Structures are given as structure tokens and as C-alpha cells.
Amino acid sequence: MEIKVKLNGKTVSASIDADLLLIDFLRDHGCYSVKRGCETSNCGLCTVLMDGVPVLSCSVLAARADGHEILTLEGLQEEASEFIGFIADQGADQCGFCNPGFVMNTIALLRENPDPTDDEIRAFLAGNLCRCSGYEGQLRGIRNFLSSRKG
Amino acid sequence: MEHKNYKAINKSVRKKDSMQLLLGKPVYTQDIAPQGALVVKLLRSPYANAVVETIDTKVAKLVPGIEAIYTWEDVPSQRFAIAGQTYPEPSPYDRLIIDRHVRYAGDVVAIIAADSEKAALKAMKLIKVGYRQLEAVLDFHQALDNPVLVHPEDDWFPPMEVGGNAKRNLVAHEDSGDGDVDEVIADCEEVLQNSYHMRSFNQAMMETFRTYTQLDRYGRLHVISSTQIVFHVRRILSNALGIPKSQIRVEKPRIGGGFGAKQTAVCEVYPAFVTLKTGKPAMLIYTREECQIAGSPRHEMEITVRLGADRDGHIRGLDLYTLSNTGAYGEHGPTTVGLTGHKSIPMYTGGLQAHRFHYDVVYTNTVPGGAYRGYGATQGIFALESAVNELAEKLGIDPTALREQNMLKEGMVMPAYYGETANACALDRCMARCKELFGWDEKYPVRDMGNGKVRAAGVAMAMQGSCISSLDVGSATVKLADDGTFNLIIGAADMGTGCDTILAQMVAECMDCTVDDVAVFGADTDVSPYDSGSYASSTTYITGKAVEKACSELKTKLCAIAAGMLGCDKEELYFENGKVCRIGSDQTVSLAQISVKEQLNNDIAAVATASHASPVSPPPYMVGMVEIELDKGTGQVKILDYVAVVDCGIAINPALARIQAEGGIVQGIGHTLFENVTADRHGSPIENSFMQYKIPTRLDMGRLHVEFENSYEPTGPFGAKSIGEIVINTPAPAIAHAIYRATGVWHRELPITPEKILMSMPDER
Asked: What is the CA radius of gyration of chain A?
């Protein structure tokens, strides 16, 4: 089937199999930031924004993206750059494999709630697994970013 | 303790790859592999013990897009081991690429290579296999001398004598000790004996096992793999495929986590075999399910502790027996088990009069075990620290005071640790500081919150090593680059931990430059100097020392080049503040000037390679304390606070060391409370996805607080020891202790799920 997707600001037309998952469509189109960590929608690594809302691209058919706007980390480099340095300062990037999904969901969080509490951060990002960092460093990074923004 | 004003050491600089990783750049195996590689899939046995009587691939091969399907008839017949260990490996050569006799539910029956995943999976369904099912050994208590043999074959081969005998299902056996433990324990006023059981927890790194293979422009096998051990993988492939090592090149890109899982060549042989047979690029990516059911998880172990003490709390005798389940193959079986005793008993060197440590490692028809952060010490420390907590509660002595009375102190010789001396040991200071930070005296008493919930605290100590002594080799090449900066080339594998960065910090310290002035490359068997690989907590301690040595040798060479430039004797020159200086004069030569000279009429290479090995493996130490809130109505345990104080010598990068500690603690919390592994009737883990295998989320770990108590290890680089593994060892015994405090019941089997807690308190409901 034919689909037309606005991917990171550019219109992409493609002929796809009906059972193609969005994650595979995105990786086929060069969005290598989108990672697969499980097959059961549990890890959050494949998080992308669909019409501005975070979705797990492993659980969305590419066909569902027809006529919609998809943003991956490739399309949000500037917005991510505002805060990722604070994560890096904590050393919390670690192996990095969960980073794109975590960064995407953090972008979604900060768009929705620019001044979240620690518990709100934990709750919003609860679906983003990380096996390396123990999460605390990621939280410190976001907290330091929020503090720096307040000056 | 030595104090120095370091410029680059003990500084929390960002990881060199941070921005690439956080911006999602394509740096992992699957991202950099060229499009169009054959997709490799593995057909796995559904049975725990069976012989493939017939296998028919004719129909499967008709599926459009199928390149090849290989079965046991197609592979070489020499046995090999896939454990990443220095040759000769302690792990037995007990594998074939595909064995007609499948030994666990998940063992490989066929390799399918296709131009798409869809085609490969379709073909997989069309392969007809006739299995002759055999009786299986699933319970590791029943394995030794069971008439059913997991490895009855005559070509089973141990490269090294470790006390194994395949005809007894025995992979390894040892009995060691110091003094007459039976006599000492017989003389003790209190004797405690219990068994502690830890299951085969999964590393659950976010990036599953994966390997890409191709023939390079010289026709050699080029392997790009997510691995911690490029050099061992080269040897393993050579053994498995029957081709010379010189025909194989192995490199690793960025790695999406390892934790020891990737210290075994779990998946490399399959795509390598496909590429060798077809001449075409091939890629194998394990699904999460394959990772869970056919990876290389922690060895299931049951450890029986016999502890003898006097009523005043003096621990006099320790006797540990470990039964370890290596599963269907022996990867890391003979070695993980050793740490259960060697990395637990020495913590009580203080008053110990005798100890014994003995073990058996057995085969069963279950998932083969492997290396997982902690490597046996985790299991041993759960057992021994639980036993010590049980002793404290029995004697009515505060468990921190009991430990202070018996613990290892700096300067002591450790009979249970190869007679090594604790040159750098801040275990006592870790305990004191942890008590203070945690507020032990206020939190240790059990507090009923009046709403069905109880708060309680627990404690544990831990140790690990900093390498495999007299065995591991680390190497580093440091060379002057064009513009007076440096290249550092290593064979150690940064798997996210930050070793590329901390080793660059060491170069920066030695060569008086910035960390940004050091470009790091690793790891590639064609380019890197030999390194055992990143495991056994060895990279900072061993490879770090090699970096120091290489820098020292490079300085000598830089002086020699500068001597030619100045027309003086090289003995008149020394390296200081990033330049070469002449004694008794103000003449200097900058690195930039030397790098120009290096390329102009020069006959001295501005490059140095050094290797390092160590006769000792200095232990890091740690104390962990946990406060939980336990719901007596549901058995639910909530972690409130986890405080840990770690002695890793000098932390080269405190931010990265802290993240190691936090990450390790959270993994420990996971296997203590949530990460269950139960087997179906074929011995295969039921928890085969993240849906069922619940690793901690950020809602599960409470508040973490980590601090460091420095010691100075004289044999380490800049006083450093290790940090990577020890950090996973305290949660299990500390949390089990807190649960006992809250419920009055000791749980000696992990994980301690709410169901188990609730069922254990019949009178409370």
C-alpha cells in the first residue's frame, strides 16, 4: 500500500507492506536513532512523536502514520541539545542505547509540563527502561537543566 | 594515603561519546552495517534433551529469498568453547556450531540465511525436524552422577584441568581452605548453617546480541560485533570455523550494554559461518526472547554456609559449599563459582581462624550460564552476608557492630584471597560513613507505620577484584598526532561504562594535555594492541596501568626526537608541562614542533605500546544500607532509601564511578525483588520477555545516595582499583535483611516476590 508521511519535516511517500511496523519504516528511512529493545512494548527505546504525541513505534503500523507527522530524534537535534549536556555531565548517557527514546520522551514531557517535579519526571518517563544508569543520574541531569533555565 | 593535585584524574569529565549517543547517531552494529546483508535466523529446539533423527529443509529452501539453510550435517566437527577467556580456557570445549544432540530448549538446530526476515521466518516454519526425545536433567540438585548425561560424547575436551568429568555431569570441582575448619567450628558457641539460592538472572542489556559479518577487501572474515572481547572472539571463531586467526578481523563499534553477557561469543559463530559459506555479508540480531531463553545469564547457584562464632560475635570459622548450575554448556562455569568463596570469605579475615571453600559445577539441560557483573561474588555475598545478618539477629548484636568486630582492615594478609595483602582497604571507613549518611541508628529499629506498613533497614558489605591476577593483559598504544595531540588505541571495550574516557584522562594526566586532545580508538583486532577485553573489573586497573606505561615510554621517544632537533644528548632532556625541556637551560621543544619534525627526515616513531599484567587483584570494598517499607497486607516491598559507600581506590572519573554504583545497585534491587526466572516443563525460562521479566523502572528504586571513601592502591594507575562489578553485590543481602526485620522471616531464595513474603507470614493476616 501507498503511504505519505511527514517525517522530520519532509514529506515521504512509500509503498509498504500492510504489516510493516513504524519502527522498521523509520529505520528504513535512515532514522537510526529509533531502537528496538524488546518485542512487547515494554522498553520505550523506540519512542517517537506522532503528531506531537509520544508513541512506541514498535506498536504502531506504518500504515497508521499515513497522513500524519512523525518526529524522530533526527528531526529534534536542536531541541534535544538544550538539555542533553546536563545528562552527559552526570555520565548518565552510559551505553546510550536507551538514550534516543528517553530523550524523545523527555522532550514530550518538557513540552507538556515545562516545570515538572521529580515525581512527575519519574512518572512520565516510567516507560523508558535503562539498564545502565540506575535512573538517578538521568533525573539529576534533567533537574540541573530545569534549575539552569530558572537562572 | 597519597594525595596529588591531578589535572585530569579524579575529574568528572563527560564521556567522549556522550553527544553522539544522546543525539541518537548511528554508532551501533545494526546502524553501521551496510544494507542488504543476509538476515540470519536460528531454528531452536523445543526440547531439553533430544537427538535430531531427521531434518528436512527441502520445502523450506523453496521459499523465495532463501539463500541457505544449514544443519548439523554442514558444520565442522571440532568442539570449541564460546566463553571469552584467556587461552587455555577453563571452560570445556563442549560445543559444535550445530550439534545433532540438542542439550536444552533453545539449542540451535538450523541456521537460516535469507534476503529478508520475513523469508527467513517463513522458511523456519517449513523445516521438518524429527526429534528423538531423551530424558532430561532439569534440577541441578539431581545432576551429579545422574545416569542421564548432558555431554556423553567422547570428544568433550577441557583445555585446562579444573576437576571436571563429563561422565559425572561435572564441569568443575575444587576443595580449598586454611586451617581445620571442622575443629574450629566444633569449638564455637554458635553454629549456623543455611543454604541460599540465586536464580539465573538475565543481564537484560538494552541492545540484544548482534553480529554483522562480511569478507573484507583482502577476502578475510571481517566481524563487527557487539562484544566485550574482540581478541577472544577472533580465537573462538578460528576454533569454531577451522580457519586461521590471521584470516579473521573482529571489531566492536559502540555497544548497547554488556554487563558480562557479551563476554561470551553468544551469536558470532552463526553469521560468520554463513558469510564463510556464501561469501556474502550476513547479520544476526537476537530477539529479546532469544536473549532471555538462549543468552548467557548468571549461573544459578545454591550456597551452603556453615558459620561458627562465639556469643560475643567473634566469627571464627567459615565453611562454604557452592553448587553451581552451568546449564547445557560450560561457559564460565569453572570460574564464576570460585568467586562465591574467594570474594566473600576474605571480608571476615579480621578474626577468622579457619575456612573451607568447596564446590561442584554441574551440567543440566537448561540455558547455559555465562558472565554477569559480579561473576559469582554476587551469589556468594548474598549467602555469606545473609548468614552474618542471621548471626547478628540471633545473638542480638547490631549487624554493623558485628561486622566492625570481624571485618578485614588495611594491611591484613588475606588467607582466603590467595594470601594477598589488603594494601588499600577503607572498608571500615565505608561502614562508618554509610551508617552516618543513612542514619543507621534511627532507621535500624523496626517502625510500624500504623497503616499495615512496616519500615525496616538492612545492611551488607561487598568486595570484588580488580582483574584476574597473573593472567589478564591490558595494552595501550599512545602516539603523537600531527598537531601535537595524541591518539590512544586500545583493545579494551567501552560498553557504555566510559573506559575510553577514563583512559584518555590518564593520557591527559601523563602528557599534560586536555582530555579533548586525546582521540581514542578501540577495539579492533587488526589495529589494537592485545587486550584480554573488558571484564573481571580489569580495564581501569590493568589497561589503565598500560596507558601509564605507554605514556612513559612515549616521553622517552619524544625526548629522543627533540634531542635531534636541539643537537644535544637525549639524557639532557625531560618531559614536563606538555613539552620537552633541556636541563639547565630555558630551551624547550613543543609537541607541535615535534609532530612537525616527526614527518620530516625523521627515523624515530613517536609512538609507544605497553602491556601490563598484575600479580595481585586488589579488591574494592563497599557497604550498602537499605530502608524498605513493607505492606503486610500485600507483601509489597517499596525501597525508600539506598545508601552506599564505595572504596574503589581513587575514582578516575567520580561521575562515571557514581553512575556505575547507582546502576549496579538498581540491577541488584531488580534481581532481589522482581526479576524472576521460572522454568517450563522443558526447562526453558517462562519469563522470556520484558512483559514477564520485570527489570526495575525509575519508579522502583527509591532514592539512591552513593559516596566514595578513597583509599590509594599502590599497584593501580593513580591509586585506582575497580568499580564495575562490586556495585551489584549488596542489594540482595541488605534487602533480605530488611525484609526479615519487617516480617521475622528469612528469605534465602531470590527473588523475594510479594507472593513469597505474604505466604511466609500466615499468622499476620
From this structure: 16
Q: Give B-chain residues touching A33 at CB under 8 angstroms.
A: 23-26
pLDDT in tens, A101-135: 999 999 999 999 999 999 999 999 999 999 999 99
User: Is position B179 within any domain?
Assistant: no
**Alpha-carbon distances, residue B696 vs A54, B108, B326 (angstroms):** 21, 31, 26
Same domain flag for B219 and B82: yes
Whether residue B461 sits in one domain with residue B334: yes
Give B619's DSSP letter. P
**ipTM of the shown complex:** 0.98
Give yes or no: residues B354 and B472 share one domain. Answer: no
pLDDT over 50 at B181, yes or no: yes
Q: Are residues B572 and B623 in the same domain?
A: no
B34 preceded by a cis bond (ω within 30 of 0): no
Cβ atoms of A125 and B698 within 8 Å: the answer is: yes
Residues 126-145 of chain A whose Cβ lies under 8 A from any Cβ of chain B: 126-139
Contact B12 A91 (CB under 8 A): yes
Q: Is B659's CB within 8 Å of A39's CB?
A: no
Chain A: closest CA distance from residue B420 (Å): 32
Q: Which CATH number fits domain A77-150: 1.10.150.120, 3.40.50.720, 2.60.40.1120, 3.40.190.10?
A: 1.10.150.120
What are B304's three cell numbers?
Answer: 551452603
Burial class of B54 by CB neighbour count within 10 A (0 to 12, 13 to 18, 19+):
exposed
* Mean pLDDT of the region B452-461: 98
Q: Among B26, B663, B701, select the one facing A132 at the smallest CB separation.
A: B663
Residue with cell 572498608: B427
CA distances from B661 to A92, B33, B126, B424, B730 (A): 12, 33, 48, 19, 11
Answer yes or no: do B607 and B704 share one domain: no
CA of B346, closest CA in chain A: separation in Å? 28
B490 and B539 in a common domain: yes
Q: Is residue B67 domain-shared with residue B94, that is, in the same domain?
A: yes
Q: Which one of A40, A84, A129 has the shortest CB-CB distance to B22?
A: A84
Q: Residue B397 above 80 pLDDT? A: yes
Distance from CA of B536 to the nearest CA of A (A): 17
CB contacts < 8 Å between A and B, how many? 176
**pLDDT tens-digit map of B186-205:** 999 999 999 999 999 999 99
Which residues constitute the domain of residue B320? 300-466+617-764
Residues in chain A: 151
pLDDT higher than 70, residue B721: yes
The secondary structure of chain A as a DSSP string is -EEEEEETTEEEEEE--TT-BHHHHHHHTT-TT-----SSS-S-TTEEEETTEEEEGGGSBGGGGTTSEEE-GGG-HHHHHTTHHHHHHTTTTTT-TTHHHHHHHHHHHHHH-SS--HHHHHHHTTT---SSS-SHHHHHHHHHHHHHHH-
Which residues from chain B sit within 8 angstroms of residue A80, using beta carbons?
A: 22-23
Q: Which CATH class is domain A2-75?
A: alpha beta
Of all residues in chain B, the one with the smallest CA distance to A121 is B698
Residues B675, B698, single domain; the answer is yes
Q: How many domains does chain B have?
A: 3
Phi, psi for B726 (deg, rounded to 5): -55, -30
* Domain boundaries, given as residue ranges, for chain A: 2-75, 77-150
CA–CA distance, A74 with A32 (Å, rounded to integer) = 8
- Using alpha carbons, select from B714, B531, B722, B759 the residue that is nearest to residue B620: B722
CA distance B282 to B269: 11
Residues of B in contact with A95 (CB under 8 A): 21, 205-207, 254-258, 495-497
Q: In chain B, what percentage of residues exceed pLDDT 70?
A: 99
pLDDT of B558 above 80 = yes
Tally Cβ neighbours within 10 Å of residue B280: 17
Distance in Å, alpha carbon of A85 to nearest chain B alpha carbon: 8
